[in-house]
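Write out C-alpha coordinates for SoxA A3 domain-containing protein.
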Amino acid sequence: MSDSDDKKSEKDETIVCRCRDITVSEIEEAIDDGCDNMELLKRRIKLSTGTCQGRTCVDLARRVLAEKTGKSPSEVKLTRTRTPIIPVPLKFLGGKDE
Protein backbone atom coordinates (compact mmCIF):
# COMPACT_ATOMS: atom_id res chain seq x y z
CA MET A 1 0.00 0.00 0.00
CA SER A 2 1.41 3.42 -0.93
CA ASP A 3 1.60 6.48 1.30
CA SER A 4 -1.29 8.09 -0.59
CA ASP A 5 -3.44 4.99 0.06
CA ASP A 6 -2.59 5.22 3.77
CA LYS A 7 -3.59 8.89 3.84
CA LYS A 8 -6.84 8.11 2.01
CA SER A 9 -7.71 5.39 4.56
CA GLU A 10 -6.98 7.73 7.46
CA LYS A 11 -9.12 10.46 5.91
CA ASP A 12 -12.00 8.07 5.28
CA GLU A 13 -12.18 7.16 8.97
CA THR A 14 -12.03 10.73 10.22
CA ILE A 15 -15.15 11.46 12.24
CA VAL A 16 -16.86 14.63 11.06
CA CYS A 17 -20.02 14.51 13.18
CA ARG A 18 -19.28 13.35 16.71
CA CYS A 19 -22.93 13.38 17.74
CA ARG A 20 -23.96 10.93 15.00
CA ASP A 21 -20.54 9.27 14.49
CA ILE A 22 -20.49 10.18 10.77
CA THR A 23 -17.16 9.79 8.95
CA VAL A 24 -15.69 11.47 5.89
CA SER A 25 -16.17 8.24 3.92
CA GLU A 26 -19.89 8.17 4.78
CA ILE A 27 -20.27 11.75 3.56
CA GLU A 28 -18.32 10.96 0.37
CA GLU A 29 -20.43 7.86 -0.24
CA ALA A 30 -23.65 9.89 0.13
CA ILE A 31 -22.27 12.49 -2.29
CA ASP A 32 -21.42 9.72 -4.78
CA ASP A 33 -25.02 8.50 -4.42
CA GLY A 34 -26.38 11.92 -5.45
CA CYS A 35 -26.46 14.04 -2.28
CA ASP A 36 -24.92 17.17 -3.76
CA ASN A 37 -25.94 19.71 -1.12
CA MET A 38 -26.03 20.04 2.67
CA GLU A 39 -29.81 19.64 2.88
CA LEU A 40 -29.67 16.25 1.14
CA LEU A 41 -26.78 15.13 3.36
CA LYS A 42 -28.83 16.12 6.40
CA ARG A 43 -31.81 14.09 5.21
CA ARG A 44 -29.80 11.08 4.00
CA ILE A 45 -27.21 10.53 6.75
CA LYS A 46 -28.63 12.77 9.51
CA LEU A 47 -25.65 15.12 9.38
CA SER A 48 -26.01 18.06 11.80
CA THR A 49 -29.08 16.62 13.55
CA GLY A 50 -27.37 15.54 16.76
CA THR A 51 -27.05 17.29 20.09
CA CYS A 52 -24.88 20.13 18.74
CA GLN A 53 -27.24 20.77 15.78
CA GLY A 54 -24.27 21.09 13.43
CA ARG A 55 -22.17 23.53 15.43
CA THR A 56 -19.18 21.18 15.38
CA CYS A 57 -19.60 19.34 12.06
CA VAL A 58 -21.13 21.65 9.46
CA ASP A 59 -17.93 23.50 8.53
CA LEU A 60 -15.92 20.32 7.98
CA ALA A 61 -18.78 18.62 6.12
CA ARG A 62 -19.14 21.71 3.97
CA ARG A 63 -15.44 21.49 3.04
CA VAL A 64 -15.76 17.78 2.19
CA LEU A 65 -18.79 18.49 0.00
CA ALA A 66 -17.04 21.41 -1.71
CA GLU A 67 -13.91 19.38 -2.42
CA LYS A 68 -15.89 16.41 -3.73
CA THR A 69 -18.13 18.53 -6.00
CA GLY A 70 -15.45 20.94 -7.21
CA LYS A 71 -16.99 23.99 -5.54
CA SER A 72 -15.56 26.44 -3.07
CA PRO A 73 -16.88 26.11 0.51
CA SER A 74 -18.60 29.49 0.18
CA GLU A 75 -20.62 28.13 -2.77
CA VAL A 76 -22.03 25.30 -0.64
CA LYS A 77 -25.24 26.53 0.97
CA LEU A 78 -26.09 25.56 4.53
CA THR A 79 -29.31 23.83 5.56
CA ARG A 80 -32.46 25.75 6.40
CA THR A 81 -33.52 26.26 9.99
CA ARG A 82 -37.08 25.11 10.58
CA THR A 83 -39.18 26.53 13.36
CA PRO A 84 -42.26 24.79 14.79
CA ILE A 85 -45.42 25.24 12.68
CA ILE A 86 -47.54 26.09 15.72
CA PRO A 87 -46.43 28.00 18.81
CA VAL A 88 -44.78 25.68 21.33
CA PRO A 89 -44.37 26.65 25.00
CA LEU A 90 -40.71 27.01 25.96
CA LYS A 91 -41.12 24.49 28.78
CA PHE A 92 -41.62 21.77 26.12
CA LEU A 93 -38.48 22.79 24.26
CA GLY A 94 -36.50 22.92 27.49
CA GLY A 95 -37.58 19.46 28.62
CA LYS A 96 -39.52 20.55 31.72
CA ASP A 97 -42.34 18.21 32.75
CA GLU A 98 -44.45 20.88 34.46
